[in-house]
Amino acid sequence: MTHLEITQDEPAEATDGVWLTCIECGEHFPPFEGIRYTCDECGGLLEVRYADLPTFEDFGDDESAFHGGVWRYSDALPFDEGVSLPEGNTPLHDVPRLEDEIGVERLRVKHEGMNPTGSFKDRGMTVGVRVAQEIGVDRLACASTGNTSAALSAYGSRAGLEVLVLLPAGKVAAGKIAQASLHGARILEVDGNFDRCLDIVKDLADRGEAYLLNSLNPFRLEGQKTIALEIMEQFRAEEGQFPDRIVLPVGNAGNTAALYKAFRELETTGAIDENQIPKITGVQAAGSAPLVEAIEEGWDHIERWDDVETKATAIRIGNPVNAPKALPGVRETGGTAVAVSDEEITDAQRSLAEEGVGVEPASAASIAGLRTLRAEGVVGDDEQVVCLTTGHLLKDPDAAAEAGTDPEPVPADTDDVLEHLRS
Ligand SMILES: Cc1ncc(COP(=O)(O)O)c(C=O)c1O
Ligand SMILES: N[C@@H](CCOP(=O)(O)O)C(=O)O
Protein backbone atom coordinates (compact mmCIF):
# COMPACT_ATOMS: atom_id res chain seq x y z
CA MET A 1 0.00 0.00 0.00
CA THR A 2 1.30 3.48 -0.81
CA HIS A 3 0.08 6.83 0.49
CA LEU A 4 0.30 8.78 -2.73
CA GLU A 5 -3.20 10.22 -2.38
CA ILE A 6 -2.86 13.86 -1.34
CA THR A 7 -4.65 14.64 1.92
CA GLN A 8 -4.79 18.10 3.43
CA ASP A 9 -5.64 17.00 7.00
CA GLU A 10 -2.94 18.82 8.91
CA PRO A 11 -1.11 16.54 11.39
CA ALA A 12 0.43 17.73 14.67
CA GLU A 13 3.88 17.50 13.02
CA ALA A 14 3.08 20.36 10.58
CA THR A 15 4.84 23.74 10.69
CA ASP A 16 2.89 26.58 9.06
CA GLY A 17 0.77 24.07 7.16
CA VAL A 18 3.76 22.09 5.79
CA TRP A 19 4.83 18.57 6.76
CA LEU A 20 6.48 15.41 5.42
CA THR A 21 4.60 12.14 4.84
CA CYS A 22 6.07 8.71 4.12
CA ILE A 23 4.58 7.33 0.89
CA GLU A 24 4.92 3.76 2.17
CA CYS A 25 3.64 3.77 5.79
CA GLY A 26 1.91 7.17 6.02
CA GLU A 27 3.97 8.38 9.01
CA HIS A 28 4.19 12.18 9.32
CA PHE A 29 7.28 14.24 10.21
CA PRO A 30 7.99 17.92 10.91
CA PRO A 31 9.44 19.58 7.79
CA PHE A 32 12.47 21.42 9.15
CA GLU A 33 13.19 19.84 12.55
CA GLY A 34 15.94 17.28 12.27
CA ILE A 35 17.32 16.14 8.95
CA ARG A 36 15.74 13.19 7.20
CA TYR A 37 15.51 12.16 3.56
CA THR A 38 13.52 8.96 4.09
CA CYS A 39 11.06 7.66 6.70
CA ASP A 40 12.48 7.04 10.21
CA GLU A 41 10.06 4.13 10.61
CA CYS A 42 10.25 2.15 7.36
CA GLY A 43 12.83 3.85 5.12
CA GLY A 44 10.17 4.82 2.54
CA LEU A 45 10.39 7.94 0.39
CA LEU A 46 8.99 11.17 1.84
CA GLU A 47 6.67 13.70 0.22
CA VAL A 48 6.10 17.33 1.20
CA ARG A 49 2.44 17.94 2.03
CA TYR A 50 0.47 21.19 2.50
CA ALA A 51 -2.70 22.10 4.39
CA ASP A 52 -3.59 24.64 1.67
CA LEU A 53 -3.05 23.91 -1.99
CA PRO A 54 -3.49 26.52 -4.71
CA THR A 55 -5.47 26.43 -7.95
CA PHE A 56 -4.24 28.10 -11.16
CA GLU A 57 -6.01 31.36 -10.22
CA ASP A 58 -3.94 31.59 -7.01
CA PHE A 59 -0.74 31.85 -9.07
CA GLY A 60 -1.97 35.13 -10.58
CA ASP A 61 -2.08 35.96 -14.25
CA ASP A 62 -0.48 39.37 -14.58
CA GLU A 63 2.39 39.55 -17.04
CA SER A 64 5.14 40.21 -14.48
CA ALA A 65 4.01 37.32 -12.28
CA PHE A 66 3.81 34.99 -15.27
CA HIS A 67 7.47 35.68 -16.00
CA GLY A 68 8.38 35.13 -12.38
CA GLY A 69 9.59 31.54 -12.81
CA VAL A 70 9.67 29.00 -9.98
CA TRP A 71 8.76 31.40 -7.17
CA ARG A 72 5.63 32.56 -8.95
CA TYR A 73 4.32 29.19 -7.73
CA SER A 74 5.24 29.86 -4.10
CA ASP A 75 1.69 28.96 -2.97
CA ALA A 76 2.58 25.39 -3.96
CA LEU A 77 6.03 25.53 -2.30
CA PRO A 78 7.23 25.47 1.33
CA PHE A 79 8.54 29.08 1.23
CA ASP A 80 7.66 32.37 -0.49
CA GLU A 81 11.12 32.92 -1.90
CA GLY A 82 14.58 31.39 -2.02
CA VAL A 83 18.11 31.72 -3.37
CA SER A 84 17.21 32.56 -6.96
CA LEU A 85 19.22 33.24 -10.13
CA PRO A 86 16.27 33.27 -11.32
CA GLU A 87 15.05 29.93 -12.71
CA GLY A 88 12.00 28.54 -14.50
CA ASN A 89 9.77 30.27 -17.04
CA THR A 90 11.46 28.29 -19.80
CA PRO A 91 10.23 28.35 -23.42
CA LEU A 92 7.66 25.99 -24.89
CA HIS A 93 8.92 25.73 -28.47
CA ASP A 94 6.98 24.92 -31.63
CA VAL A 95 8.82 22.26 -33.65
CA PRO A 96 6.72 22.09 -36.84
CA ARG A 97 9.03 19.80 -38.85
CA LEU A 98 9.26 17.26 -36.05
CA GLU A 99 5.52 17.52 -35.46
CA ASP A 100 4.88 16.65 -39.14
CA GLU A 101 7.50 13.94 -39.31
CA ILE A 102 6.46 12.18 -36.10
CA GLY A 103 2.80 12.67 -36.96
CA VAL A 104 1.01 13.93 -33.87
CA GLU A 105 -1.69 16.58 -33.70
CA ARG A 106 0.55 18.99 -31.78
CA LEU A 107 4.14 18.76 -30.55
CA ARG A 108 5.76 21.28 -28.24
CA VAL A 109 9.20 21.15 -26.62
CA LYS A 110 9.63 22.50 -23.09
CA HIS A 111 13.30 23.44 -23.08
CA GLU A 112 14.63 23.22 -19.54
CA GLY A 113 18.13 23.78 -20.89
CA MET A 114 17.27 27.49 -20.76
CA ASN A 115 17.53 27.59 -16.97
CA PRO A 116 20.44 29.60 -15.47
CA THR A 117 22.90 26.71 -15.20
CA GLY A 118 21.44 25.01 -18.28
CA SER A 119 19.22 22.31 -16.79
CA PHE A 120 16.00 21.73 -14.83
CA LYS A 121 18.04 21.04 -11.68
CA ASP A 122 17.99 24.79 -10.94
CA ARG A 123 14.28 24.57 -10.16
CA GLY A 124 15.00 21.98 -7.49
CA MET A 125 18.05 23.71 -6.10
CA THR A 126 16.40 27.09 -5.54
CA VAL A 127 14.00 25.35 -3.14
CA GLY A 128 16.49 22.81 -1.75
CA VAL A 129 19.10 25.41 -0.84
CA ARG A 130 16.40 27.56 0.81
CA VAL A 131 15.51 24.57 2.99
CA ALA A 132 19.19 24.01 3.80
CA GLN A 133 19.34 27.61 5.04
CA GLU A 134 16.22 27.06 7.16
CA ILE A 135 17.64 23.91 8.73
CA GLY A 136 20.99 25.63 9.21
CA VAL A 137 23.61 23.42 7.54
CA ASP A 138 27.14 24.35 6.43
CA ARG A 139 28.01 21.78 3.78
CA LEU A 140 25.85 20.70 0.84
CA ALA A 141 26.59 17.55 -1.14
CA CYS A 142 25.37 15.58 -4.11
CA ALA A 143 26.27 12.67 -6.34
CA SER A 144 25.97 13.64 -9.95
CA THR A 145 26.16 12.70 -13.58
CA GLY A 146 26.92 16.42 -13.99
CA ASN A 147 23.88 18.67 -14.01
CA THR A 148 22.96 18.33 -10.36
CA SER A 149 26.54 19.22 -9.43
CA ALA A 150 26.51 22.29 -11.71
CA ALA A 151 23.27 23.56 -10.20
CA LEU A 152 24.21 22.78 -6.60
CA SER A 153 27.57 24.49 -7.05
CA ALA A 154 25.95 27.67 -8.39
CA TYR A 155 23.12 27.88 -5.85
CA GLY A 156 25.26 26.75 -2.91
CA SER A 157 27.95 29.21 -3.79
CA ARG A 158 25.43 32.05 -4.08
CA ALA A 159 24.12 31.11 -0.63
CA GLY A 160 27.68 31.18 0.75
CA LEU A 161 27.68 27.47 1.63
CA GLU A 162 30.34 24.83 1.09
CA VAL A 163 29.58 22.40 -1.75
CA LEU A 164 30.91 18.87 -2.18
CA VAL A 165 30.16 16.89 -5.35
CA LEU A 166 30.92 13.24 -6.11
CA LEU A 167 31.16 12.40 -9.80
CA PRO A 168 31.70 9.09 -11.63
CA ALA A 169 35.26 9.43 -12.98
CA GLY A 170 35.44 9.82 -16.75
CA LYS A 171 31.66 9.80 -17.24
CA VAL A 172 30.69 13.45 -16.82
CA ALA A 173 30.46 15.87 -19.77
CA ALA A 174 33.04 18.65 -19.91
CA GLY A 175 30.67 21.62 -19.59
CA LYS A 176 29.23 20.31 -16.34
CA ILE A 177 32.59 19.74 -14.66
CA ALA A 178 33.66 23.23 -15.75
CA GLN A 179 30.57 24.69 -14.07
CA ALA A 180 31.10 22.90 -10.75
CA SER A 181 34.76 23.84 -10.85
CA LEU A 182 34.29 27.56 -11.50
CA HIS A 183 31.48 27.88 -8.96
CA GLY A 184 33.98 26.65 -6.41
CA ALA A 185 32.72 23.18 -5.45
CA ARG A 186 35.04 20.57 -4.04
CA ILE A 187 34.92 17.87 -6.75
CA LEU A 188 35.63 14.23 -5.92
CA GLU A 189 36.00 11.89 -8.91
CA VAL A 190 34.89 8.45 -7.78
CA ASP A 191 36.13 5.22 -9.29
CA GLY A 192 32.58 3.91 -9.73
CA ASN A 193 29.30 4.80 -11.42
CA PHE A 194 26.71 7.41 -10.38
CA ASP A 195 24.76 4.96 -8.24
CA ARG A 196 27.88 4.19 -6.16
CA CYS A 197 28.51 7.94 -5.80
CA LEU A 198 24.97 8.35 -4.45
CA ASP A 199 25.45 5.44 -2.02
CA ILE A 200 28.48 7.28 -0.62
CA VAL A 201 26.76 10.67 -0.42
CA LYS A 202 23.86 9.03 1.42
CA ASP A 203 26.36 7.53 3.91
CA LEU A 204 28.04 10.92 4.37
CA ALA A 205 24.63 12.54 4.95
CA ASP A 206 23.61 9.83 7.43
CA ARG A 207 26.85 10.47 9.34
CA GLY A 208 25.99 14.18 9.53
CA GLU A 209 28.87 15.22 7.25
CA ALA A 210 26.73 17.02 4.67
CA TYR A 211 23.18 17.96 3.64
CA LEU A 212 22.15 15.81 0.68
CA LEU A 213 20.66 17.68 -2.25
CA ASN A 214 19.96 14.91 -4.72
CA SER A 215 16.36 14.28 -5.68
CA LEU A 216 16.03 11.82 -2.79
CA ASN A 217 15.56 15.06 -0.84
CA PRO A 218 11.80 15.66 -1.13
CA PHE A 219 12.19 19.46 -1.18
CA ARG A 220 14.17 19.28 -4.46
CA LEU A 221 11.12 17.75 -6.12
CA GLU A 222 8.90 20.60 -4.95
CA GLY A 223 10.89 22.99 -7.13
CA GLN A 224 10.84 20.56 -10.07
CA LYS A 225 7.06 20.31 -9.69
CA THR A 226 6.87 23.76 -11.27
CA ILE A 227 7.84 22.25 -14.66
CA ALA A 228 4.40 20.63 -14.73
CA LEU A 229 2.62 23.77 -13.54
CA GLU A 230 4.29 25.85 -16.25
CA ILE A 231 3.58 23.31 -18.97
CA MET A 232 -0.10 23.16 -18.03
CA GLU A 233 -0.46 26.95 -17.99
CA GLN A 234 1.61 27.66 -21.10
CA PHE A 235 0.07 24.88 -23.18
CA ARG A 236 -3.48 25.85 -22.23
CA ALA A 237 -2.76 29.54 -22.92
CA GLU A 238 -1.43 28.74 -26.40
CA GLU A 239 -3.47 25.68 -27.43
CA GLY A 240 -6.69 26.14 -25.46
CA GLN A 241 -6.39 22.79 -23.69
CA PHE A 242 -4.00 20.78 -21.54
CA PRO A 243 -1.56 18.37 -23.24
CA ASP A 244 -2.55 14.70 -23.56
CA ARG A 245 0.94 13.44 -22.89
CA ILE A 246 4.29 14.57 -21.49
CA VAL A 247 7.36 12.63 -22.66
CA LEU A 248 10.53 12.97 -20.61
CA PRO A 249 13.98 11.40 -20.19
CA VAL A 250 14.35 9.36 -17.01
CA GLY A 251 17.47 8.97 -14.88
CA ASN A 252 16.97 9.08 -11.12
CA ALA A 253 13.22 9.54 -11.88
CA GLY A 254 12.89 12.77 -9.90
CA ASN A 255 11.04 14.65 -12.64
CA THR A 256 8.66 11.76 -13.22
CA ALA A 257 7.83 11.81 -9.50
CA ALA A 258 7.60 15.62 -9.40
CA LEU A 259 5.26 15.85 -12.41
CA TYR A 260 2.97 13.21 -10.95
CA LYS A 261 2.84 15.07 -7.62
CA ALA A 262 1.98 18.34 -9.36
CA PHE A 263 -0.90 16.64 -11.20
CA ARG A 264 -2.21 14.98 -8.02
CA GLU A 265 -2.16 18.35 -6.25
CA LEU A 266 -3.96 20.09 -9.13
CA GLU A 267 -6.59 17.35 -9.12
CA THR A 268 -7.01 17.61 -5.34
CA THR A 269 -7.89 21.32 -5.61
CA GLY A 270 -10.21 20.72 -8.57
CA ALA A 271 -7.93 22.78 -10.86
CA ILE A 272 -7.98 19.83 -13.29
CA ASP A 273 -10.10 16.68 -13.64
CA GLU A 274 -8.60 13.21 -13.48
CA ASN A 275 -9.06 12.87 -17.25
CA GLN A 276 -7.05 16.05 -17.84
CA ILE A 277 -3.89 14.62 -16.28
CA PRO A 278 -1.32 14.15 -19.07
CA LYS A 279 0.02 10.64 -19.59
CA ILE A 280 3.51 10.60 -18.09
CA THR A 281 5.78 8.79 -20.55
CA GLY A 282 9.36 8.02 -19.55
CA VAL A 283 12.29 7.37 -21.87
CA GLN A 284 15.57 5.71 -20.90
CA ALA A 285 18.69 4.80 -22.84
CA ALA A 286 18.68 1.10 -23.73
CA GLY A 287 21.95 0.56 -21.85
CA SER A 288 20.48 2.01 -18.68
CA ALA A 289 16.79 1.18 -18.51
CA PRO A 290 15.72 -0.32 -15.16
CA LEU A 291 12.50 1.71 -15.02
CA VAL A 292 11.47 0.58 -18.51
CA GLU A 293 12.18 -2.99 -17.44
CA ALA A 294 9.93 -2.59 -14.37
CA ILE A 295 7.09 -1.11 -16.44
CA GLU A 296 7.37 -3.81 -19.09
CA GLU A 297 7.52 -6.59 -16.48
CA GLY A 298 4.68 -5.13 -14.38
CA TRP A 299 6.89 -4.92 -11.28
CA ASP A 300 6.10 -2.55 -8.39
CA HIS A 301 9.84 -1.97 -7.84
CA ILE A 302 12.93 -1.67 -9.99
CA GLU A 303 15.86 -4.09 -10.05
CA ARG A 304 19.16 -2.18 -9.84
CA TRP A 305 21.35 -2.42 -12.96
CA ASP A 306 25.00 -2.55 -11.88
CA ASP A 307 26.41 -2.17 -15.38
CA VAL A 308 25.04 0.80 -17.26
CA GLU A 309 26.30 2.46 -20.42
CA THR A 310 25.07 5.17 -22.77
CA LYS A 311 26.46 8.25 -24.47
CA ALA A 312 23.62 10.15 -22.77
CA THR A 313 25.76 10.31 -19.63
CA ALA A 314 23.20 12.40 -17.72
CA ILE A 315 20.88 9.38 -17.58
CA ARG A 316 23.54 6.73 -17.08
CA ILE A 317 21.79 5.58 -13.91
CA GLY A 318 20.99 2.01 -12.86
CA ASN A 319 19.15 2.56 -9.59
CA PRO A 320 16.55 5.35 -9.93
CA VAL A 321 15.92 6.26 -6.30
CA ASN A 322 12.54 7.83 -7.00
CA ALA A 323 11.12 4.69 -8.61
CA PRO A 324 8.52 4.13 -5.83
CA LYS A 325 7.03 7.53 -6.72
CA ALA A 326 7.67 7.36 -10.46
CA LEU A 327 6.29 3.89 -11.26
CA PRO A 328 2.78 4.80 -9.99
CA GLY A 329 3.13 8.12 -11.83
CA VAL A 330 3.62 6.37 -15.16
CA ARG A 331 0.96 3.74 -14.52
CA GLU A 332 -1.78 5.83 -12.88
CA THR A 333 -1.67 8.48 -15.61
CA GLY A 334 -1.98 5.87 -18.36
CA GLY A 335 1.56 6.57 -19.56
CA THR A 336 4.30 4.15 -20.45
CA ALA A 337 8.09 3.86 -20.61
CA VAL A 338 10.33 3.03 -23.53
CA ALA A 339 14.04 2.46 -24.18
CA VAL A 340 15.92 4.01 -27.12
CA SER A 341 19.35 3.36 -28.59
CA ASP A 342 22.23 5.84 -28.50
CA GLU A 343 21.92 6.18 -32.31
CA GLU A 344 18.24 7.12 -31.95
CA ILE A 345 19.21 9.67 -29.30
CA THR A 346 21.80 11.26 -31.61
CA ASP A 347 19.32 11.37 -34.53
CA ALA A 348 16.81 13.13 -32.27
CA GLN A 349 19.49 15.55 -31.07
CA ARG A 350 20.18 16.47 -34.72
CA SER A 351 16.47 16.85 -35.49
CA LEU A 352 15.99 19.21 -32.57
CA ALA A 353 19.07 21.17 -33.62
CA GLU A 354 17.54 21.58 -37.11
CA GLU A 355 14.60 23.29 -35.40
CA GLY A 356 17.06 25.57 -33.58
CA VAL A 357 16.70 23.78 -30.26
CA GLY A 358 20.12 22.81 -28.90
CA VAL A 359 20.07 20.04 -26.32
CA GLU A 360 22.43 17.58 -24.70
CA PRO A 361 22.00 13.86 -25.58
CA ALA A 362 19.86 12.82 -22.56
CA SER A 363 17.34 15.52 -23.43
CA ALA A 364 16.92 14.26 -26.97
CA ALA A 365 15.82 10.88 -25.56
CA SER A 366 12.33 12.35 -25.14
CA ILE A 367 12.00 12.97 -28.89
CA ALA A 368 13.59 9.61 -29.71
CA GLY A 369 11.11 7.90 -27.38
CA LEU A 370 8.14 9.70 -28.89
CA ARG A 371 9.30 8.68 -32.38
CA THR A 372 9.44 5.02 -31.30
CA LEU A 373 6.09 5.06 -29.53
CA ARG A 374 4.37 6.82 -32.45
CA ALA A 375 5.88 4.32 -34.92
CA GLU A 376 4.58 1.48 -32.73
CA GLY A 377 1.13 3.08 -32.59
CA VAL A 378 1.29 3.48 -28.80
CA VAL A 379 0.98 7.25 -29.27
CA GLY A 380 -1.94 8.23 -31.49
CA ASP A 381 -1.88 10.74 -34.38
CA ASP A 382 -4.54 12.80 -32.58
CA GLU A 383 -2.41 13.45 -29.48
CA GLN A 384 -1.19 16.82 -28.20
CA VAL A 385 2.27 16.11 -26.82
CA VAL A 386 4.92 17.99 -24.87
CA CYS A 387 8.47 16.63 -24.90
CA LEU A 388 10.74 17.77 -22.10
CA THR A 389 14.31 18.62 -23.06
CA THR A 390 16.23 18.74 -19.83
CA GLY A 391 19.71 20.15 -20.54
CA HIS A 392 21.44 22.59 -22.91
CA LEU A 393 23.59 21.57 -25.91
CA LEU A 394 26.69 23.26 -24.43
CA LYS A 395 26.63 20.95 -21.42
CA ASP A 396 28.23 18.25 -23.57
CA PRO A 397 30.27 19.97 -26.30
CA ASP A 398 32.01 16.72 -27.28
CA ALA A 399 28.71 14.96 -28.00
CA ALA A 400 27.49 17.99 -29.96
CA ALA A 401 30.66 18.13 -32.07
CA GLU A 402 30.43 14.38 -32.75
CA ALA A 403 26.80 14.66 -33.83
CA GLY A 404 27.35 17.81 -35.90
CA THR A 405 29.37 18.78 -38.96
CA ASP A 406 33.16 19.10 -38.88
CA PRO A 407 34.87 22.48 -39.41
CA GLU A 408 36.67 22.72 -42.79
CA PRO A 409 40.15 24.30 -42.76
CA VAL A 410 40.65 26.93 -45.51
CA PRO A 411 43.43 29.40 -46.38
CA ALA A 412 42.98 33.03 -45.26
CA ASP A 413 42.13 34.23 -48.77
CA THR A 414 38.73 35.04 -50.36
CA ASP A 415 39.47 33.36 -53.72
CA ASP A 416 40.63 30.23 -51.94
CA VAL A 417 37.50 30.28 -49.78
CA LEU A 418 35.29 30.57 -52.89
CA GLU A 419 37.18 27.79 -54.62
CA HIS A 420 36.76 25.62 -51.54
CA LEU A 421 33.00 26.36 -51.44
CA ARG A 422 32.61 25.39 -55.12
CA SER A 423 34.68 22.23 -54.90
C1 LIG B 1 19.94 16.38 -18.73
C2 LIG B 1 19.22 15.40 -17.87
N1 LIG B 1 18.12 14.84 -18.36
C3 LIG B 1 17.42 13.96 -17.65
C4 LIG B 1 17.82 13.57 -16.38
C5 LIG B 1 16.98 12.61 -15.67
O1 LIG B 1 16.13 13.27 -14.76
P1 LIG B 1 15.55 12.48 -13.53
O2 LIG B 1 16.73 12.08 -12.69
O3 LIG B 1 14.68 13.48 -12.86
O4 LIG B 1 14.84 11.31 -14.06
C6 LIG B 1 18.98 14.13 -15.83
C7 LIG B 1 19.46 13.72 -14.49
O5 LIG B 1 19.12 12.72 -13.93
C8 LIG B 1 19.67 15.08 -16.59
O6 LIG B 1 20.76 15.66 -16.11
N1 LIG C 1 21.28 13.54 -13.93
C1 LIG C 1 21.49 13.77 -12.57
C2 LIG C 1 21.61 12.56 -11.71
C3 LIG C 1 21.29 12.90 -10.26
O1 LIG C 1 19.95 13.16 -10.18
P1 LIG C 1 19.23 13.88 -8.96
O2 LIG C 1 18.08 14.56 -9.63
O3 LIG C 1 18.87 12.82 -8.03
O4 LIG C 1 20.16 14.87 -8.34
C4 LIG C 1 22.66 14.73 -12.42
O5 LIG C 1 22.70 15.70 -13.16
O6 LIG C 1 23.53 14.50 -11.60
What does this structure look like?
The structure is a single chain. With 423 residues, the protein is α/β, with parallel strands linked by helices. The protein folds into two domains: 92-116 and 218-403, Rossmann fold, CATH 3.40.50; 121-212, Rossmann fold. It has 14 helices and 13 strands. The protein has helices at 63-66, 96-102, 121-135, 147-158, 174-182, 194-206, 218-239, 254-268, 290-297, 323-332, 342-354, 361-375, 397-403, 414-422, and strands at residues 18-22, 28-29, 46-50, 92-94, 106-111, 139-143, 162-168, 186-190, 211-212, 245-249, 279-285, 337-340, 384-389. The protein has a six-stranded mixed β-sheet with strand order 4-5-13-10-11-12, with helices on both faces. Strands 8-7-6-9 form a four-stranded parallel β-sheet, sandwiched between helices. A three-stranded antiparallel β-sheet has the order 2-1-3. Helix 3 crosses helix 7 and helix 8 (254-268) crosses helix 10 (323-332). The longest helix has 22 residues, at 218-239. Bound molecules: pyridoxal-5'-phosphate (PLP) and ligand LJ64HWYM. The ligand N[C@@H](CCOP(=O)(O)O)C(=O)O is lined by residues 121, 142, 144-148, 214-215, 251-252, 254, 314. It is an enzyme of class 4 (lyase).
